[in-house]
Automatic annotation (TrEMBL):
GO biological process: DNA-templated DNA replication
Example of a GO MF term: DNA-directed DNA polymerase activity
Organism: Glycomyces sambucus
The family this protein is said to belong to: Belongs to the DNA polymerase HolA subunit family.
Enzyme category, top tier: transferase
Domain DNA polymerase III delta subunit-like C-terminal, first and last residues per copy: 204-318
Name the UniProt record assigns to this protein: DNA-directed DNA polymerase
CC annotations in GO: DNA polymerase III complex
Organismal lineage: Bacteria, Bacillati, Actinomycetota, Actinomycetes, Glycomycetales
Cytoplasm recorded as keyword: no
Listed InterPro entries: DNA_pol3_clamp-load_cplx_C, DNA_pol3_delta-like_C, DNA_polIII_delta, P-loop_NTPase
Length: 329
């Protein structure tokens, strides 16, 4: 196997993905070495602690031979003088010495990332995942890599895991590996809910789904349990707003789910789900529900003395706006 490039720029603000990218670089170096060579020595240093002397240390050969991998973490914290030393080294890297430079991609310390890119480095991107479809794709990839069956790596299973675990990528990756190991790769929505029994029940998406369905009792029960175990009201309010917004967007469009997926930034199964939910809603009711969500947003972010009460009041208002909710009254 061909050896990786001697300098690798890892660019982005997600700490977990940056750590993983650095680890994959080390693995690539090891895979390119002769089988009987010792494992590469890995030297790590935080950007704030990097000096010219420390740079020389992490890029120096060992007494025992073999490759050396230096990893500069939080490269945006490297000072101006040391940036010049790193760039000078990058122009003439030593043989069998490899250097990974992690930078969050911001303006601080930008001379380092831009300087390395000018040397022809193609950065490995590790930006935070912010869109739900991208988060679902990440989880599906984790499930496949861990050995889940094709059915167990579906978008629906991935979304269930996200609802149960949250959006932190480190926790999601750990959960995927654990679920695959504990189920022999045959994961169902029920097994996820059972495995995370205390967490799946308090998801903001669970509260939102029950609210949109007009089931006030279920929504309020999930909300009170969430508040009891310390879930912050803001993500619950955000989930409610997202659910109403998705209904409004889907209700106004015609065409197949696959066709609309790219246009609306939603997965096809999310569009199908929203369409089924939208059958109980009129355009006027959706417009009023969006106003309720807008008011709730301000209340949970500082405008209300009792944020829990604000959430309950909004849930009751929204459930009564749906046709399904009115039939329960």
């Amino acid at each position: 196997m061909a050896a990786p490039e001697p300098i690798r720029l890892i660019l982005g603000d997600d700490e977990f993905l940056a750590e993983r990218a650095a680890a994959e670089y080390v693995k690539a170096v090891r895979a390119a070495m002769p089988e009987h060579d010792p494992a590469p020595a890995v030297n790590r240093v935080a950007g704030a602690d990097l000096t010219s002397g420390a740079l020389n240390e992490i890029t120096s050969p060992t007494l025992f031979g073999g490759a050396v991998v230096g990893v500069i973490e939080s490269g945006q914290d490297v000072d101006k003088d040391t940036i010049a030393a790193v760039l000078a080294y990058a122009k003439q890297p030593a043989p069998d010495i490899y250097l990974a430079v992690c930078h969050n991609g911001g303006n601080k310390g930008k001379a380092l990332s831009e300087g390395l890119k000018k040397l022809g480095l193609d950065p490995v991107r590790v930006s935070k995942i912010k869109r739900q479809p991208d988060r679902v794709a990440f989880v599906r990839g984790e499930l496949r890599d861990a050995g889940a069956s094709p059915r167990s790596a579906s978008a629906e299973i991935a979304d269930t895991i996200i609802q149960a675990v949250g959006s932190d990528l480190r926790e999601l990756a750990s959960a995927c590996a654990q679920l695959v190991a504990d189920t022999d790769g045959k994961i169902t929505q029920e097994s996820v809910a059972q495995y995370y029994s205390g967490r799946a029940e308090v998801s903001g998406f669970t509260v939102a789904d029950a609210t949109i369905a007009g089931d006030a009792a279920e929504a309020l029960g999930a909300l009170r349990w969430a508040m009891q175990v310390g879930v912050d009201p803001v993500p619950i309010a955000d989930a409610l707003a997202m659910a109403v917004r998705n209904l409004s967007r889907v209700a106004a469009e015609r065409g197949g789910a696959a066709q609309l997926a790219g246009q609306l930034g939603m997965a096809p199964w999310q569009i199908e789900k929203a369409r089924k939910q939208a059958r109980n809603w009129t355009a006027d009711a959706l417009a009023e529900a969006m106003q309720v969500c807008a008011r709730l947003n301000g209340e949970v972010k500082g405008g209300a003395d009792d944020r829990g009460w604000a959430l309950e009041h909004a849930i009751l208002q929204i459930t009564r706006l749906s046709a399904a909710g009115r039939t329960r009254v």
